[in-house]
Design goal:
Helix content is about 45%, strand content about 15%. It is of the alpha/beta class. The longest helix is centred in the last third of the chain and has 24 residues. The chain is globular and about 50 Å long. The mean pLDDT is about 95.
């Protein structure tokens, strides 16, 4: 069983090329090389402000049969936007900005538009903020219907740990997204191993509980010891001192197979490791490729009982 026949290996260009964000052609040039090399079938970007770059990206994506996820979480952090703001004026501004970027995502050939919730407002306002987020997600899902096959994705993040976002723990995001999906089947999640672990949730239980909502996965490592100076979701390499190992990734593949997540071959899976300043992004990409392949081989061996 070949990896490419089961899921779509994805590369987070927004992380591998993080030191170069904002430079012209950075994503388009990378996508051209990704297409030439042929291993990755999906790419993940942050906002692309230049219309000429968006058009070039769309042509490369189409020519190479790639899928694209267009991420706005970083944009929202930088610009202090919040789709879950209890301040209704801020919520409306945030939704309007996301709708503008949805048009840009479509111009890049993206078929997945990804956002996060706003910051955790504290226990007393969480219920109200969650309701605001529900309204925002419904509005974005409705807006996405004008674009062919556009999915809306949220990435549940950690709360009371590092990123400290409203959404959030597994039980809460499952309840929320299931509610949105009653009206919008194109709503789903990007399940992120680091955020789940930092929320204090068991990654296996979280994966099983949310399997019906998962459109894509981020295999992200984190240091869970709060006394460690590197504590949190810093997009570190796989292995110690973090919790995520290649063996755990292989086990996740096994659980995905067991829960039929691999059916349809449309699930995108990416390693989330940020390239450090001065380092080579292609060394990072090649390591992601190696780890995905190694974990897949481990999974196949375990499945065969050898």
């Amino acid at each position: 069983m070949d990896l490419h026949q089961t899921f779509r290996p994805s590369v987070m260009l927004s992380e591998t090329h993080f030191p170069f964000l904002g430079q012209d052609d950075v994503f388009a040039d990378a996508i051209q090389r990704i297409g030439d090399e042929g291993f990755f079938q999906s790419v993940e970007l942050v906002n692309v402000d230049n219309v000429k770059q968006r058009r070039r990206i769309a042509k490369l994506v189409d020519a190479n049969g790639l899928s694209v996820t267009y991420w706005l979480t970083l944009y929202c952090f930088v610009h202090r936007l919040s789709l879950s703001a209890t301040d209704e004026a801020l919520r409306k501004i945030s939704v309007a900005k996301m709708k503008d970027h949805m048009e840009q995502a479509a111009q890049c050939g993206a078929r997945a538009f990804a956002v996060g919730s706003g910051p955790d407002p504290g226990l007393g306002l969480r219920e109200a903020a969650t309701e605001q987020f529900y309204i925002s997600l419904c509005e974005l899902c409705q807006a996405a219907e004008q674009f062919s096959n556009m999915r809306v994705i949220i990435e549940p993040m950690d709360r009371e740990a590092h990123k400290n976002c409203l959404i959030g723990p597994t039980a809460e995001f499952v309840k929320l997204i299931s509610r949105v999906r009653k009206d919008y089947a194109h709503m789903g999640i990007c399940w992120d191993s680091a955020h789940v672990a930092l929320c204090g949730d068991d990654i296996w239980e979280s994966f099983t509980a949310s399997k019906d909502l998962i459109f894509q996965m981020h295999l992200s490592n984190a240091i869970l010891d709060r006394n460690d100076p590197g504590f949190g979701d810093n997009h570190i390499a796989t292995g110690e001192p973090g919790f995520l190992t290649v063996e755990k990734i292989a086990e996740l593949f096994g659980l995905a197979a067991k829960t039929n997540l691999f059916s349809g071959k449309s699930l995108s899976i990416a390693m989330e490791v940020r390239t450090k300043e001065g380092a080579c992004p292609w060394a990072n990409i090649n390591e992601s490729r190696r780890l995905l392949s190694e974990a897949w081989d481990m999974f196949k061996i375990a499945r065969s009982g050898i």
